[in-house]
Amino acid sequence: MRGEKGNTARGDGHVISVGVPADADFDGASELLRALAHPVRLRIIELLSSGELCVKRLEELLGIPQPSVSQHLRRLKYGGLIESERRGHLVCYRLVEERAAEIARLALTRPDVK
């Protein structure tokens, strides 16, 4: 059964895009997007896509106070996008969800984004 152009009807009345599985995790996808939905968090993902960084270095690169950096890191960690490792008095973070970096790059390279 054909639905809208480029879409297929599943038989239960729901229309989904071609290439999206019928059992797609829309809740998980929306959680990932919510975790990215702040300019500072997008920047953190962009920075971590180049490799691991510790909180102090992120603070320097972002130009915001450590408590703010930590708040954004907590949100990204809660979303399952990054993980941390304590090394003595340092806490370092790395990207574990590569899709997050890809989504950030797509959003940041849209032709209408300046």
Topology:
Layout (H helix, E strand, L loop, with lengths): L6 E3 L5 E3 L8 H11 L2 H10 L4 E2 H8 L3 H13 L3 E6 L2 E6 L2 H11 L6
Antiparallel strand pairs: 1-2, 3-5, 4-5
Describe the protein's architecture and organization.
- The structure is a single chain.
- With 114 residues, this protein is α+β, with helices and mostly antiparallel strands.
- It has one domain (23-108): Winged helix-like DNA-binding domain superfamily/Winged helix DNA-binding domain (Arc Repressor Mutant, subunit A).
- Helices cover 46% and strands 18% of the residues.
- It has helices at 26-36, 39-48, 55-62, 66-78, 98-108; strands at residues 7-9, 15-17, 53-54, 82-87, 90-95.
- Strands 3-5-4 form a 3-stranded antiparallel sheet. Strands 1-2 form a two-stranded antiparallel ribbon.
- Mean pLDDT is 85; it is low at 1-7.
Structure keywords:
114 residues, alpha+beta, Arc Repressor Mutant, subunit A, 3-stranded antiparallel beta sheet, two-stranded antiparallel ribbon, 5 helices, 18% strand, globular, disordered N terminus
